[in-house]
Amino acid sequence: MTSTKLNIVVAVCTNMGIGIEGRLPWRLKQDMAFFKQLTVETQDEQKKNMVIMGKKTWMSIPTKFRPLQDRVNVVLSTQLTEPPSGALLASSLKEAVNLAKSDANVENVFVIGGASVYREAVEGDCPCRIYLTRVDKEFECDTFFPKFDTDVFKRIQNPNNVPTGINVEGDLSFTFEVYEKNLFPH
User: Coiled-coil regions in this chain (predicted)?
Assistant: First the structure.
């Protein structure tokens, strides 16, 4: 992998909440299907994408779904001494990105949570794209996506693989938005 572009995938409610007590506060099948498609599909079928997550995010995934199939899973932790079964272990986001750079079979890198990993990715100096699902309702949350500067992260037209318009599932409406941090300062 030659690029270190990070792709952040997150769903937020109106107060930028992303979780409560280690779980998602909502269940949106369309969003989960989009997440899987986005993080699994590659241009080169010989390659895989890497998903990077903190230890709490890893633990929040039901055991039967760990590791996330057809992706290289990397768990960030400074406390674990052995990698979780089916995953790689890194002590920092930078170390995880270096794992991706050194693996010729990794096509894209996705940051999938939690809050501190998102913050490090948003505030870091790597080129970055945010795939944000905006749920149009406020939920009680104890974990939040960090505020990001919309002068730095510009909303872009949704790429081909990203649904457009307002989506409705049950009593929830949501939209998919894409933001990109300029790769190079002007």
Answer: none
Q: Does residue 15 lie in a domain region?
A: yes
Q: Give the chain's domain count.
A: 1
Residue 13 CB partners (closer than 8 Å, separation 6+)? 25, 26, 135, 137, 138, 139, 141
In a domain, residue 1? The reply is no
Closest CA to 179 of 164, 146, 147, 157: 157
pLDDT tens for the chain, 186 residues long, are 444 789 999 999 999 999 999 999 999 999 999 999 999 999 999 999 999 999 999 999 999 999 999 999 999 999 999 999 999 999 999 999 999 999 999 999 999 999 999 999 999 888 999 999 999 999 999 999 999 998 899 999 998 889 999 999 999 999 999 999 975 544
What SS3 class is residue 147? coil
Put simply, whether the predicted model's pTM sits higher than 0.90 gets the answer yes
CATH number of the domain that 154 lies in? 3.40.430.10
The Cα-based distances of 27 to 2, 32, 78, 180, 183 in angstroms read: 35, 8, 30, 26, 33
Residues 76 and 117: beta-carbon distance below 8 Å: yes
Q: Which of 35, 21, 15, 20 lies closest to 131 in space, CA to CA?
A: 35
Domain that holds residue 132: 6-181
